[in-house]
Design brief:
About 40% of the residues lie in helices and about 20% in strands. It is an alpha+beta fold and about 625 residues long. It starts with 5 loop residues before the first helix and ends with a helix.
């Protein structure tokens, strides 16, 4: 039987992501909810032995909702809460002075003749956060939102023949690899033992991308044949493996594993869970010989256009939704079935901090887990498993350094190409050329780094004018000069501005995106997708999604969170004798990608009510 095509693998990937969450929740509920009384019309839900339905009768309908976090997940949550013919009162609290969270576009100035800053050109920007969107089934929800909000898209070139691979002191263009498919057999980067390197000779003569794909191929083919059983097999037999340990298990020597990681990802990336690598390989599977066959897009004007358009939509379509900028929530108190949100606001006019305090029936957190731990939630009855998960969830380090030059000097070097990226084992690691502006942008992402590579660069990011950032600028210019084989002085003369940003040291993100070690996602997903505060507090964001690391994950999690809120509202109003059910309207209007069946989401509510009753009511 022939191997499945890249397209067939991508098409199977969305089922795999969904079954991943579904299998984890099914197994969790089978342990937590073993018997089967009915606690609500139309919802067959099991309760644990000894639990009484009466203990779980919630009676707090949705009256007023606070959303903490003004990134994509928070803004989309507010959009979803706008039901036809009905509107909840919603307040969005954003600690930053800009909206959008990890969708962040930096715009450079120009230098005038006398050296003072003037407004930069239309395309003199770069995306500090999310910047490119592959058109794959897993990303469908993102493109639906683009269409709904009329977001202007540009083609994003993920690869160009004139891009460089610069490793072990040797520079080769991607075009040379394309022209000569046998080039890998010649050990082009001289990493083999025969050439003084550490990679065994037979392995050094293979394309590292092919070596990784071969190691994962059997597991990927199992998923393509039958996504659910294929994934169950991996969860049962291989979830305790990191990508590194699995490759070792398959007989790959350590030097080979390091070489594949160096050529494919950031240093240390293979320490993450094996399933993470498998699903990512599937979702973004491309033809190794021609990566451009996978279609990518970017947003004209930068990714910040998306959150700005979401804000416009909220202003045009809601009357009871307010956005509070520069409002940092420091505490949420749960008492007598009410949630009191308090914190510090910093008005732009005076700058003097003032305190705010408001009461809500429900709260939705749309901030990364480490930031959540900076908020006092002591009375909100997060059970032990939830508290452990929030503390343990990892966000990967990631940083970007953008530079503005007087001209787009790389255009003249590289046959006027637009886009793609060069990669290297030097400090810069990945250099990203602008796909936007049709050659008019003079801004280059001189370094896009993850994991350990990012941590090293971040240690040098001490702010403009600092000695460390001056040294960082010099290192980046040296790497650019080396990779492109041009004089350092030419680049120094071309240089105008640098902007460096590290997501791990940013207090409002504390990391870039969810990254899970072996078995971590299995352990934590079931707890972070459950509500706290007896069903009145929810957690959304890309980290709380099977599609973590992508805008699609933020959107999917928001849809799950809103469904949980509407389920709680229906149950509460039913218990009070006047049922209000907005669920069907919500499902019809938004056609949400919940990642798991809606019944499983309802069982998450019931499980939380049971666990939180067991932990907290016994102490009262």
């Amino acid at each position: 039987m022939s191997s499945p095509t890249p397209e067939a693998i991508r098409n199977a990937s969305i089922k795999a992501y969904h079954f991943w969450g579904q299998i984890l929740l099914e197994r969790f509920h089978a342990r937590q909810l073993p018997t089967s009384p009915v606690i609500h019309p139309g919802e067959q839900v099991s309760l644990p032995e000894g639990a009484k339905a009466q203990e779980l009768k919630v009676k707090t309908p949705v009256k007023r909702v606070a959303i903490i976090g003004g990134g994509v997940a928070g803004l989309y949550t507010a959009m979803l809460l706008r039901e036809h013919g009905h509107e909840f009162e919603v307040d969005i609290y954003e600690a930053n002075e800009r909206i959008g969270g990890r969708l962040y576009t930096h715009h450079f100035d120009n230098k005038s003749v006398i050296g003072t800053p003037t407004r930069g050109g239309e395309f003199d920007y770069f995306d500090v956060g999310a910047m490119r969107f592959p058109k794959t089934p897993v990303m469908a929800k993102t493109f639906e939102l683009f269409k709904m909000l009329d977001i202007p898209l540009l083609k994003y070139n993920i690869s160009d023949g004139s891009n460089w691979l610069a490793y072990n002191g040797i520079r080769i263009t991607k075009e040379e690899f394309k022209k000569n498919p046998k080039i890998w057999a010649e050990d082009p980067f001289r990493v083999s033992k025969m050439h003084g390197g550490s990679v065994p000779d037979k392995w050094a003569r293979r394309n590292p991308s092919e070596l990784l794909h071969e190691a994962l191929q059997e597991l990927i083919e199992d998923i393509v044949k039958n996504p659910k059983t294929g994934l169950q097999k991996i969860i049962d037999n291989f979830d305790h493996f990191s990508t590194r340990s699995y490759l070792s298990h398959k007989g790959y020597p350590p030097a080979v594993i390091n070489w594949i990681e160096t050529m494919s990802y950031g240093t240390g990336w293979f320490d993450r869970g094996l399933i993470e690598t498998i699903l990512e390989q599937m979702a973004f599977m491309y033809d190794i010989d021609d990566p451009s066959k996978l279609e990518w897009h970017c947003i004209k004007g930068g990714s910040e256009v998306l959150p700005l358009k979401m804000v416009q939509w909220l202003k045009a379509n809601t009357k009871s939704t307010k956005i509070h900028m520069r409002h940092r929530v420091t505490k949420v108190e749960y008492k007598l079935h009410e949630l009191t949100v308090s914190g510090i606001s910093h008005p732009l006019v005076t700058g003097d901090p003032s305190f705010f305090k408001q009461i809500y029936s429900h709260v939705i957190f749309a901030i990364p887990p480490p930031c959540l731990r900076m908020i006092d939630l002591d009375t909100c009855e997060l059970d032990y498993a939830q508290r452990t998960a929030m503390r343990s969830l990892q966000l990967a380090p990631s940083s970007k350094i953008g530079m503005k030059f007087k001209t787009a000097w790389w255009q003249t070097l590289n046959n006027n190409h637009v886009g793609g990226q060069s990669t290297t084992d030097r400090t810069a690691r990945t250099i990203v050329y602008p796909s936007h502006g049709d050659g008019k942008s003079t801004v280059l992402i001189v370094s896009y780094a993850w994991t350990q590579d990012s941590l090293a660069l971040a240690a040098m990011m001490h702010g403009p004018g600092s000695a460390e950032e001056e040294r960082l600028k010099q290192i980046m210019l040296e790497d650019l000069a080396y990779v492109h084989k041009i004089p350092l002085k030419k680049l120094a003369d071309e240089f105008e501005y640098m902007f460096a940003f590290d997501w791990s040291n940013n207090p409002l993100s504390m990391g870039a995106f969810g990254l899970f070690g072996p078995s971590q996602f299995r352990e934590f997903y079931r707890h972070v997708t459950r509500p706290a505060a007896r069903g009145q507090m929810y957690f959304v964001g890309e980290t709380f999604s099977t599609t973590h690391g992508w805008v699609a994950g933020a959107l999917n999690s928001a849809e799950r969170g809103v469904l949980q809120l509407l389920q709680h509202h229906r149950l509460s109003t039913h218990n009070k004798g006047h049922e209000e059910d907005y669920i069907e309207k919500f499902l019809q209007k938004w056609k949400p990608d919940l990642e798991v069946p809606k019944e499983a989401i309802f069982k998450q509510l019931i499980t939380s009510l049971v666990l939180q009753h067991q932990e907290f009511d016994k102490h009262h």
